[in-house]
Amino acid sequence: xxxxxxxxxxxxxxxxxxxxxxxxxxxxxxxxxxxxxxxxxxxxxxxxxxxxxxxxxxxxxxxxxxxxxxxxxxxxxxxxxxxxxxxxxxxxxxxxxxxxxxxxxxxxxxxxxxxxxxxxxxxxxxxxxxxxxxxxxxxxxxxxxxxxxxxxxxxxxxxxxxxxxxxxxxxxxxxxxxxxxxxxxxxxxxxxxxxxxxxxxxxxxxxxxxxxxxxxxxxxxxxxxxxxxxxxxxxxxxxxxxxxxxxxxxxxxxxxxxxxxxxxxxxxxxxxxxxxxxxxxxxxxxxxxxxxxxxxxxxxxxxxx
Length: 305
Ligand code: GLU
Prior knowledge:
The chain is an alpha+beta fold. It folds into two domains: 3-62 and 196-299, Beta-lactamase (3-Layer(aba) Sandwich); 63-195, DD-peptidase/beta-lactamase superfamily (Beta-lactamase, 3-Layer(aba) Sandwich). The protein is built from 13 helices and eight strands. The protein has helices at residues 3-14, 65-77, 98-102, 113-127, 131-143, 152-161, 163-174, 182-193, 199-205, 207-210, 225-238, 244-250, 287-300, and strands spanning 39-44, 49-53, 59-60, 149-150, 195-197, 255-257, 262-267, 271-276. Strand 7 and strand 8 form a beta hairpin. The longest helix is centred in the middle third of the chain and has 15 residues, at 113-127. The radius of gyration is 18 Å and the shape is globular.
């Protein structure tokens, strides 16, 4: 398949959507992104790479970080993890408080904010004050890139404005579903969200999920086959908040979005993908990113269905 040409066609066809969508403003630093940016990267299991647009430009991974923290927490806790976070789609926005109150402080899944905050808390119980460094090291390992780091300005921007996340963590603390000090856990969560990566690095970091949990280059096992299946399943059913059904319907791949404008996706047994475009749809997912992935699976037939 001529992936370079397919990426070129996608870039041409998405141009008409640049007038749509909105930059997120509840984290002030994210509102400063360049609305016209677009990048898409593919990397196959045998290491062939295809890129278009600003694929070297780093942006904050935001909720894409939830994939890595869920992977790490699942590795340590196995089924025990599901006593504290569920595995069902929420049908609610990413930062909703309502369902959490009804369900006694147990978040529906690890890919909504409340669920990710619980997985970060689980990692804090294991790693203590090293939790953020361990998360970062894991991301560096699966991306095979030791230069990856977080952006302190974006971290501080969210720390000063992430009021709903403070509400979520305090509500869960009141139900005893947060074991560590609220301030420590929320800071680790905001720090992991402020990690900066480009589409090339993010696409590469998905390869273990496309390869039954194994790094295709070093052949080392990141996570076992069964857990890799579960992570992919949850990305398919819960990776885009209350638009997860729509994403599965349009794109047909496991994926995870972040309000920084990135979306990662996995083509099982074939490749990792990442697309970046910072303007979001009303569900908080990259509008053009979703469109580009829909065009990709339509043109290539590479969906899981
Ligand atoms: N840091 C963001 C928040 O907690 C993550 C949300 C997202 O990327 O979807 O609001």
